[in-house]
Design goal:
385 residues; 5-stranded parallel beta sheet; 3 domains; Hypothetical protein af1432; Molybdopterin biosynthesis moea protein, domain 2; 3-stranded antiparallel beta sheet; Rossmann fold; alpha/beta
Length: 385
């Protein structure tokens, strides 16, 4: 009976005849790929993976199976590892299992039935690993969303800034071709969460680029540490927490926290976020984006040079915008609010500059249906060519 699966198993052996036999006996049961050396297997893991299971011979020239599986554990930790070998002495088995964290150790020669049972166990283990990982990722994403919604309810202006930072962070990370895009977006979205303990006046003055006295500057800078500490307690949020904790730190080592960390020792996320924060402050104060980037470029020592160059390129490529009044039903993802949106009793609902995403549109619609805002919204949208 043929097993329908898209999960691929990588067999590694320096003897072509053995690999041919494996392909012949298992091709109707599993998706099989092969490699004839440890290095070829590592290249396959890097360029052709992911693989569900890797099965390696022990005795191979240049790189034995134990070393290969130990390196595979680092480069492809979700791939289940097995050993198939004619060298069955106890020490070999112990070394291989300890170094490569191996699920099964199979002796040559073996039967098709035995190896089939082992591979099915390996695939089941891989599914368990990936399912747990997806669950954890969903939990982390849910935590991020919950914190963002709390910020939106407690301080719409802060949330508006966070959404602007998230949008700019995504664009910058994409331009730099960074992996784990959700991680950098989440760091930007939650970067202001520590500000909920500060006065609205202090937050607004800082956001608009006003110079703060030493007392207020110290109070504001503390928000980064508070936000970082809050998120550090959530599993898989360590990188995001470090980004938030160091967001007030400049590339030359100035800023907060006051320590010896500077340059590329500053977490990458914080180096991405720092010029975005300063750019947003200028834009909030009414300074055009291109002019704001000129101001940032006058102090190049404060920013990672590669990131500052990429942000400059990003701003130059931004299309022209026009302001228009539209109906609620005409709102879409390409629009941004051109002014703060208030309810009829004067409460800030959505801050200026925030993109009218699906969640923002639902938020606005709910208030409109309850008669708390009008049916026309002033937005900015890309100018028609």
């Amino acid at each position: 009976m043929t097993t329908e699966t898209t999960e691929t198993i990588l067999f590694v052996d320096d003897e072509p005849n053995i690999l041919s036999s494996i392909r012949r006996n298992l091709r109707n049961k599993f998706s099989i790929d092969t490699a004839q050396s440890g290095q070829e297997a590592l290249d396959a893991l890097a360029n052709k993976g992911p693989y569900a299971v890797i099965v390696s011979d022990m005795q191979m020239p240049e790189m034995n199976g134990a070393e290969l599986l130990a390196r595979a554990k680092l480069s492809a930790p979700n791939t289940v590892r097995m050993m198939l070998t004619g060298n069955a002495d106890q020490q070999t088995a112990i070394d291989a299992i300890n170094k490569g964290d191996i699920l099964r150790f199979l002796n040559k020669p073996t039967t098709t039935e035995t190896i089939t049972l082992a591979l099915n166990a390996g695939l089941a283990q891989h599914r368990l690993i990936t399912a747990e990982q997806r669950l954890l990722q969903d939990t982390v994403r849910g935590s991020v969303q919950a914190l963002a919604e709390i910020l939106a309810l407690s301080n719409p202006e802060l949330f508006g800034r966070s959404m602007r930072l998230k949008s700019r962070m995504r664009q910058l990370a994409e331009l730099l071709k960074l992996d784990d895009l959700w991680q950098w977006e989440s760091a930007a979205l939650l970067s202001q969460v520590g500000c909920v303990s500060l006065s609205a006046d202090l937050v607004k003055r800082k956001a608009m680029g006003f110079e703060l006295d030493s007392f207020d500057a110290q109070r504001f800078a503390a928000h980064a540490a508070a936000g970082g500490d809050l998120l550090a307690s959530i599993p898989r949020m360590e990188v995001i927490a470090d980004t938030i904790r160091y967001q007030e730190k400049y590339f030359d080592g100035s800023g907060m926290p006051r320590n010896a960390v500077k340059g590329e020792a500053i977490p990458l996320g914080a180096r991405l976020l720092r010029p975005i924060l300063d750019l947003d402050a200028y834009e909030t104060a009414g300074v055009a984006s291109e002019v704001a980037m000129t101001h940032l470029s006058e102090n190049p020592q404060r920013y990672d040079p590669q990131i500052l160059a990429a942000l400059t390129e990003l701003i130059r490529a931004v299309p022209a915008w026009e302001t228009r009044e539209v109906s609620l039903h005409a709102l879409n993802d390409d629009m941004k609010l051109a002014a703060d949106l208030h309810t009829v009793d004067g409460r800030l609902l959505v801050a200026s500059g925030q993109s009218t995403t699906a969640s923002v549109r639902r938020h606005i619609t709910n208030f409109h249906e309850n008669g708390l805002i009008g049916a026309r919204i002033v937005v900015r949208l890309p100018a028609e060519a």
